[in-house]
Amino acid sequence: MFSNLKPTPADKILALSGLYKADPRDNKVDLGVGVYKDADGKTPIMTAISKAEKRVLETETTKSYAGLAGQPEFHDAMAQLVLGDDYPADRLAFLSTVGGTGACRQAFELARIANPGAKVYVSDPTWPNHLAILNFMGMEFETYRYFDSETRAVCFDAMIEDIKKAGKGDIVLLHGCCHNPTGANLTLEQWQVVADTLLESGAIAMIDLAYQGFGDGLADDAAGTRLMAETLPELMIAASCSKNFGIYRERTGILMVLGATETRDVTQDNLSKLNRLAYSFPPFHGQALVAKVLTDPELRREWEEELEAVRNGMLGLREQLASELRKLTNSDRFDFIAQHRGMFSRLGASEEQVIKMRDENAIYMVGDSRLNIAGLNANSVPLLAQAIVDAGV
After folding, report:
1. Which end of the chain is more exposed for a tag (fewer CB within 10 A), N or C?
2. pTM for the complete prediction?
3. Residues carrying an active site annotation
4. pLDDT tens per residue, range 342-376
5. Domains of the chain (ranges plus CATH)?
């Protein structure tokens, strides 16, 4: 039987990581893998998380199963973080998941149960795993125009033209903030146009919120999501705790489903069933850490300060890179880097130019020229800027 199996396509980002590790050059720069790194190239444990972990372990009395859908304390804390203190609890169903990826997968599963013929509309470009999951599930999808490779900004009129094709019960997948892979975000006014468009068509918005706090701050990064929740009768939100809490390996995510009050219980029942069929109970430890940080005033303050330092550090690197390129090119054509938000920007380089930077300058980025800003530091920014110019980007 197993002789019938065929090799799966290589994951381009993981393959790039392998090439980077094998490169003996001392000046190599890894801008591929989407993990936050500090100036020393490490992914540190936040101080607030370390303290929360100690408190959780000191008070934990059992390793028995916890809730099938996750812990209410975690659900409540995350709903407040994403939607604000006055979130509509009577309209929300929750599911703790295996990371933000698990939240996306379970959202697609729920959509397929609710409307087996649902088509998913996905931004062009998007996080590659969105498309990989949809392909694996056999769900029909189309892309909508999102990123202008010339201006490196959102091509909004084209986006609206495309999502108007979504019909009632179809899914329009949106990035809540810090768009991956482009770094180009919608303005709040544009979010309102998107909401009005979906309200008219009856299509359902699904928001992938993987980087809250990495862009313009916790509240500003959630502003579009909150607007959608206030405007639309139904909404799915897949949120990750990997980045803003720095707990990648704990695989902590949440799916929040907003609907009518009278459908909440049956939605919750279906969500719990999805966890039961996939892996029974979701991981507990990460939920406990996040809930502890968000509900303890001291830890919450400390976490917000740490997160703000991370955000400002990335903004500083963006400004430095844009400034270096302005000096080297005597033009402002790379100023979009400072205007983008989050961990990623797409340079607009060709694959040949990306390979040239890798071969000649030991700069490692994904073939579509997505670069991880958090992979830089003050010393490597000038190296990248010179490589970009040398490659003729």
Report:
1. N
2. 0.96
3. 127, 208, 210, 243
4. 999 999 999 999 999 999 999 999 999 999 999 99
5. 11-45+300-390 (3.90.1150.10), 65-295 (3.40.640.10)
